[in-house]
Amino acid sequence: MVSDFFYPNFGGVESHIYYLSQCLLKLGHKVVVMTHAYGKRSGVRYVTNGLKVYYVPWRPFLMQNTLPTFYGTLPITRTILVRERISIVHGHQAFSTLCHEALMHARTMGYKIIFTDHSLYGFADVGSIHMNKVLQFTLADISQAICVSHTSKENTVLRSGITPERVFVIPNAVDTAMFSPAPNRLSCDEIVIIVVSRLVYRKGADLLVEVIPEVCHLFPNVRFVVGGDGPKRVRLEEMREKYSLQDRVEMLGAVPHSQVRSVLISGHIFLNSSLTEAFCIAILEAASCGLLTVSTRVGGVPEVLPDDMIVLAEPDPGDMVHAIRKAIHMLPNINPYVMHSRMKKLYSWHDVAKRTEFVYDCALQSDDESLLQRLPRYLKCGAWAGKLFGLVMIVNFLLWRLLELWRPAESIEEVPDLVLVQNEHQEPMQDFVEARD
Amino acid sequence: MSRGPASNNKYSYNHLNAKGPSEAIDVHDITVKKSRLRIFLSYFGAAVFLTATFYLVALKELCISSIWIILVCFSLAKVLHHKPVKKESVMIMPAFGVQLETHYWSGRVIRRFVPISKILKPVLNECVTPVTCYWSLALILRDEVELMLVFQKLQPPVRMLVPVWKALCAATDCKRNQHHLNLCAVLVSVYLASDTD
């Protein structure tokens, strides 16, 4: 698994990679994660169940992304792929430069590659245009692609020009064991609405500023709890001051991931006001905790929950207030425990891992191709871009051959599979030596 | 005396187990094979660099391209540079200590002694650099933050490191048995190497 985004960063992509890797380990596969170093955290680390993570010491330069040097990561990628006996390289998130570079190198070296897209992107602004071109390059020669919702599949196919038959849709899941409802049901006298998200423009913090005073005015028994931090927090504080809602709106600041559940179970309704979402894991977590969700009808959100667990609204303050009113009326009929057991059946990471395994099998069955057979796919990408992409791949191929001459693959020692033993007196490295001989 | 047969085209490994008057002394050697080609290339690289520098300085033209040429020749010389290390050896004296020696081709020997009580555990590390990943053997010392590398100058392959590691573990284990330590079964720690010399 390759991505710029992994633990110790917290987010949708990071937890997706982590949970998927854990479930694949349980299915018996070998998983290695490659990401860039986070501060002092660099080198090889083992996380739960022996998942090996390579924190490659390349400096991040912009928003947690490694500096894109095109060919700089070729030696370390090649070393890791050879020493760990990798068969498939799975990259995550279009915004990750390390992912694109590693997929390019892996393809040059003949490995099968898979890409998972986690977000929706636009088409109009300069940043998006460049990002889409890079994505087109990576997906030109990909074995298979995965998207987290049908809306996301449509978006990816339009942005990159890949054939839809190659794209699989595997929704994210939620750890229902961690997100369970409160043991005692909350009373409905005072209704608590929870908002937990980064307070940025994309997540609709401006909508919140309009909606909260309106709702507080219409429903005197409603209280808000806002968790999360970001540039728009100032606007929310100003709103609190302006309408004197200090006792009705509680601002928690940044909530660590381990405490999200305790914040969620203190409320009845979860409010999500994002302006764009490919798939919203936050509402899955809320539903798993037994909260009724009110959300904006954007992106892949309508595909996530059944209609009786979510109330959708247009991203417009008036419509959202109307939706909150509807949710408050629905509240007495909601049983958190029934919701939680439904979520357990609907979403599970083991199911995601099995479906991903199927995609891996499809990828492995595709034929091995030489550089000459693959180049035409790059040349089709555009008048100028196609030739540039073809050139980039040829240079990458030549550099790889040079590296093979200088440091042959036989000189890279393979890492034996370490067996994790709980008994401290046993010598685990004995397995080490036997595996090598 | 027993010999280890492991060798590759750059390093060769030897294990001498001499029986002293009262206890066995274990000696593990890793010798660098003398390669004329490497010595020639190293002198060639240095010669190119020095010639280029003197030529450009003598001509008194220090523009950007000449600085680039000097830099390129310098990196070429650095890459081709041949380390003057002849062999590195580890002498394990059980219940007493471990002596780490570095022998150079010029005859110089650098020795470091580590008493057995100072060693907490010998570990095999995977070191990750921006361009590669390799194994190294290091000792975790009591009361010290830094790990001590057993083979400071050489980077032998891991199949040569494993017997040395096992011998070091055996030597430190006998001493350590009275101290009950709760160590995790897989002890692989991280060491970021800044250069790959």
TrEMBL record, chain A:
Residues 187-329 form the Glycosyl transferase family domain. This is phosphatidylinositol N-acetylglucosaminyltransferase. Residues 36-125 form the PIGA GPI anchor biosynthesis domain. Keywords: Glycosyltransferase, GPI-anchor biosynthesis, Transferase. GO terms for cellular component: glycosylphosphatidylinositol-N-acetylglucosaminyltransferase (GPI-GnT) complex. One of its GO terms (biological process) is GPI anchor biosynthetic process. It holds the Pfam family Glycos_transf_1. Its EC number is 2.4.1.198.
UniProtKB/TrEMBL annotation, chain B:
The chain crosses the membrane at residues 40-58, 64-81. Pathway: Glycolipid biosynthesis; glycosylphosphatidylinositol-anchor biosynthesis. The keyword Membrane applies. Keywords: Membrane, Transmembrane, Transmembrane helix. One of its GO terms (biological process) is GPI anchor biosynthetic process. It holds the Pfam family PIG-H. GO terms for cellular component: glycosylphosphatidylinositol-N-acetylglucosaminyltransferase (GPI-GnT) complex. The keyword Ribosomal protein does not apply. Residues 89-152 form the Phosphatidylinositol N-acetylglucosaminyltransferase subunit H conserved domain. Belongs to the PIGH family. PANTHER family: PHOSPHATIDYLINOSITOL N-ACETYLGLUCOSAMINYLTRANSFERASE SUBUNIT H (PTHR15231). This is Phosphatidylinositol N-acetylglucosaminyltransferase subunit H conserved domain-containing protein. It comes from Ensete ventricosum (Abyssinian banana).
